[in-house]
Amino acid sequence: MVAIIDYDAGNIRSVEKAVISLGYEAVLTRDADSILAADHVILPGVGAFGDAMDKLSAYGLVDVIRIVAERGIPFLGICLGLQLMFESSEEAPGVEGLGLLKGNILRIPEKDDLKIPHIGWNSLRYPLQGRLFAGIPEEAYVYFVHSYYLRAQEPEIVKAVTEYGVEIHASVEKDNLFACQFHPEKSSDVGMRILQNFMEI
Fold it and tell me: Which of 16, 79, 118, 173 is labelled catalytic?
């Protein structure tokens, strides 16, 4: 069973539908027992960093997520979910993230020819081999929607990067923790393969 954490963020049901379409049981929940009993846990979402951390705290989910990480349950953050896994974000100065991984979330720099938010398809490069990308060639295209990007402190966890005015750490992996800045559930066959790879971990 896959627990998809419900903390009132946007774009959660599309992840639920994608998981179900792959043939897995999915439950949208904020119940601690259900989350901790799951085989896999996903933290999806679109929204603001500060508001999201407030919601996770209000629903008692911060400690639950940390227990998931400590127990070695495969955990996947998507878009805002990736950002929340790190220490802080320029979007919400003074607000602490989950701190599961070391790094910070920065605003995409303004450039004349680039629109922010970054919305659209970008290709991936793999500085290091990641389990999410098994069977997926480099330069595969995935779908992004974001104004902020990850700068991870540990280069060894960065498994996919893309370019949008700056190098963006598009996917990371450390032990049982995985995250994608892009939306696999909106990235056609490539994205579904990424989700399938996660489900097989």
Answer: 79
